[in-house]
Amino acid sequence: MYVFVKENENEKTFINTGEILSILESTKNPESEKIRNILQKSLNKERLTPYEVATLLNANSDELWEEIFEAARKLKEKVYGNRIVLFAPLYIGNECINDCEYCGFRISNKDVIRKTLSIEKLKDEVKALVTKGHKRLIVVYGEHPMYSPQFIAKTIDNIYNTKVGNGEIRRVNVNAAPQTVEGYKIIKEVGIGTFQIFQETYHIPTYKKMHPRGPKSNFAWRLYGLDRAMLAGIDDVGIGALFGLYDWKFEVMGLIYHTIHLEERFGVGPHTISFPRIEPAVGTPTAKRPPYQVNDEDFKKIVAILRLAVPYTGLILTAREPMNIRREVLKLGVSQIDAGSSIGVGSYSEKDPEVIKKSQFILGDTRTLDEVIYELLKENYIPSFCTACYRAGRTGEHFMEFAIPGFVKRFCTPNALFTLNEYLNDYASEKTYKIGKKVIKTEVEKLDTKQKETVKDGLNKIDKGERDVRF
Ligand code: SAM
Ligand code: SF4
Fold this sequence. Notes:
By secondary structure, the chain is α/β, with parallel strands linked by helices. About 50% of the residues lie in helices and about 10% in strands. The protein has three domains: about 15-75; about 80-385, Aldolase class I (TIM Barrel); about 395-465. It has helices at about 15-25, 30-45, 50-55, 60-80, 120-130, 150-160, 180-190, 205-210, 220-225, 225-230, 250-265, 285-290, 295-310, 325-330, 355, 370-380, 390, 395-405, 405-425, 430-445, 450-465; strands at about 85-95, 135-140, 170-175, 195, 235-240, 270-275, 315, 335-340, 380-385. Bound molecules: S-adenosylmethionine (SAM) and iron/sulfur cluster.
């Protein structure tokens, strides 16, 4: 029997601190040959075992790390190609009854401005996002009785029903507190994409220290939060760790154990992994000086190892990171980024600098969506707003992308080009339009003859005004 709520403090979960520490210890100073064999396994697109991941984490020379980075870049190209999916976070409310040491929303922080969007204000926010060209959102909520499953469902429903001209939000992912199975079922009803819960840290003593009060202080309730989502029929879940609370190598191992647990129990691993680094937040000393701050070099290592460890899992990078870091880790394995983000509650439709300054944390990349798209195009990526699989009922889509031969070619690339073309026609600046059309042309030329015709046909339909063209 699996545990959903840990009633007994000593009950075992799938995270065994002693085991992780001992694997990390026993794999120290690995031989080059061993590392190279593991890299080969990754390049054959197989998920790595905890032992293999620990071996990579313990690579101890610059040369070996360069080989690891190179393998991650290769794998990224091989599995994902040059598509990058774009989304925006939308903060619905920051009332919170927890006291997470690192978060600006925590209950004891008197410096943060507390707000919850009214439905009218929520619609203003959605309109502002749609007008910029967004199609995919992640909605974010503090943990508070106000944010019941019914409230969450109602806000998402209103997002889907807010149309502006040619545009609308087509996929809403959720980052909210862990729910009961019944609660998840209510949220699932309105049609959500991924339900994300970050464990923050997999190191139990650190977890206890960082979450001293409130429902979040229960490590196991959170750890099994996505099991309950799966039991409620949400088969698309995202895990994550907040880097800076404990040793980064330990956290990477925690993420791998979590992945394996979901795979073993439900036959499908997480759709995405997030790996935010702690950012400074107003009135929050722990966020200013995290106990295990991760430097840029180690951050690159985290991305590369995750890419190699779980070849078929999407990796999400957020605008918490500055532009130069974003650029580097895109190459190493990131498949989704947010762009044009604002994390103040209500700050897309109303730019109040005070609200932005006094929000959850401070963003590192504040470029507009159009600027990000322009940069991506310049570097030969295909920015994509694709939501086709989820809406065609191809659930577990992320897995399908790779499990079905030719899937990426048949669906992902054309859909990425279609959504990019929509963006260019409806929202792009002149310079983005120009380069975007050029990139589309180049990408179409790479397709085989039969596909070229159907994709050209779809692109023409969009040029003539048709929207939401997809395979
Ligand atoms: N309240 C819900 C929860 O805690 O799961 C969901 C929203 S919470 C704002 C979303 C995530 O923000 C948390 O899981 C945490 O990883 C991240 N976060 C909190 N404080 C942060 C900080 N100072 N810097 C970066 N990320 C932070
Ligand atoms: Fe609340 Fe989530 Fe912030 Fe913790 S991380 S204080 S639960 S909003």
